[in-house]
Amino acid sequence: MFSVGTIPGGTPQSPEPGAASASFPSLAPVSGRGEAEEEEDNEQEPAEIYLCALWTSGYLGIAYYDTSDSIIHFMPDAPDHESLKLLQRVLDEINPRSVVTSAKQDENMTRFLGKLASQEHREPKRPEIVFLPSVDFGLEISKQRLLAGNYSFIPDSMTTTEKILFLSSIIPFDCLLTVRALGGLLKFLGRRRIGVELEDYNVSVPILGFKKFVLTHLVSIDQDTYSVLQIFKSESHPSVYKVASGLKEGLSLFGILNRCHCKWGQKLLRLWFTRPTHDLGELNSRLDVIQFFLLPQNLDMAQMLHRLLGHIKNVPLILKRMKLSHTKVSDWQVLYKFLSEEKLHYRSARTKELDALLGDLHCDIRDQETLLMYQLQCQVLARAAVLTRVLDLASRLDVLLALASAARDYGYSRPRYSPQLLGVRILNGRHPLMELCARTFVPNSAECGGDKGRIKVITGPNSSGKSIYLKQVGLITFMALVGSFVPAEEAEIGAVDAIFTRIHSCESISLGLSTFMIDLNQVAKAVNNATKQSLVLIDEFGKGTNTVDGLALLAAVLRHWLALGPMCPHIFVATNFLSLVQLQLLPQGPLVQYLGLAKGFRAGSRDIDDTLSPCISFKTMETCEDGDDLVFFYQVCEGIANASHASYTAAQAGLPGNLVARGKEVSDLIRSGKPIKPVKELLKEKQMENCQTLVDKFLKLDLEDPNLDLDIFMSQEVLPAATGIL
């Protein structure tokens, strides 16, 4: 059966990180292998990898086919420098036999591939460079090629619509470069007939699945997670003069931490955000610098350095202009400030006499200036590598100074990394965005892994802070994985390889998916890709359909993860489906813990059955009733909520009191199993309206009309209305 997974460390054959880094060693036991298996492996043909790569406007799209498992691996669109360092890392890690790309390429990509092809002594061998016509990489053609593929893991009984929905849960169709790379790869595989060279032409290249590829040390985070956690948030600029750019950064994590003074520092910070890592050496190196600049005796130096970094301009663009001899005076001013000493230069009568006597030396002066400028330009270009290295270091310093400034102003603390810990431990954590918007913010702790349970079930009333709590855990973990201080008293981060979320539905008009289908796709990504080192955040899943089906889906997903035992991911799930506990839909075992943020939790009572799994953590957001008001404490505590208090939230939203009261009455009747009867006052009012309508119709009849048929009036008007009147 087809499986969809994340491939950390360039080891796509294993659902777990097979080639774990030195910083986070794999805890999975190594199974013994018999001689027969080894002989069988020796007889197999060596695996070959065929890579397709596209680079456009600073972004890289990658897809490759591995003959060892007949699976296509893809990496969603990722930012990459003009030097294509990310592409080089991918090549070093997977060592492809062929690199496929478009014949119409950017100059940087062409130069990179030229160097790659010239590496005669590359180990283990230099790849073959294959150029296909640019039309083979068209977006719509690539989409059609993906949807028309003959995949053994998709049943023939699936309709076209069902196939689109299924593939959309696997392939990120919003990553345009990746989709184009996948389309080009399929074209190449079909043309070369990889693996089926000797078969009949009607036999297609075997494709057994699609999997997401993640480089070693990088943490997998999809675009939905970046959006729902508000790591990035673009919004329209209010100024009418910003039509060209159109967007600016809104309230987001990147927005509050981006205090970089130079453009290249901002680009580097965004790059760090798009590539969170669990490389302990790199993370601790960043934290050491931040901690150094946070020392009181280093404050003045940090502020001075940060201010000076603002003078750094677009050095790579200047060097490019020098190579093309298009340098402007302003470019030289960027590299070195001229001092005019406030002197003015002009031509007087005496200078004109000297020109007539000695001749106009202007041409000679211009020639000499041109020669000097050319020599100076050659000297600068000869040191371009040094300038680029200085720019990289200055950008890194700018980012670290920005993170140190934010940590100082917001009271962040240094996180710790524990490779042996599976999960996270957060003491009095805070939401980095919410605490800036709220007058007071209540910190909450979080802990998962070990004997604290893998699944945390959080219940509580609406507006009690469940979603904020989930996002807070995700953001603190993310900040630690980019090497930033975090909003918590203490934070210990274990071996986290991915963060998955189902918190907010991101609409997709282009794919034509319903909100509930988008929710299902987000959960499917977590179910198919999450490992025992992954963090999964799920909020109110199942509310897009009826209560019974939604409850059943949520229980089925949690039971699936519980069945994995020690391989279960670290899951925080917020829900108002209290029947999940009351009906005991989760099996017994040591993996679930119940938390919550609600009033009326009853720790130790039947709401927390002792026969349930002690590692399903039940917690609730603590509240109390003050007359007709409900006071939220926004504090996580042990237990389960006994009510969602939807009527209180509805009243706060401005719904009429009679509607709120009727809703509460119907809810109580359903909960007690009693029949729901219409409201008598409303029923009488409706009866009177129906009677009045029938009387009005009768009074309009002309009884003296010889053509009037009262039998027709009785059958068409009176009798149908009788049921609503009597």
UniProtKB/TrEMBL annotation:
Keywords: ATP-binding, DNA-binding, Nucleotide-binding. Signal peptide: none annotated. SMART domains: MUTSac (SM00534), MUTSd (SM00533). Residues 36-45 have a biased composition (Acidic residues). It comes from the Eukaryota. Residues 534-550 form the DNA mismatch repair proteins mutS family domain. Pfam families: MutS_III (PF05192), MutS_V (PF00488). Residues 1-45 are annotated as: Disordered. Belongs to the DNA mismatch repair MutS family. This is MutS protein homolog 5 isoform X7. It comes from Acinonyx jubatus. The gene is MSH5.
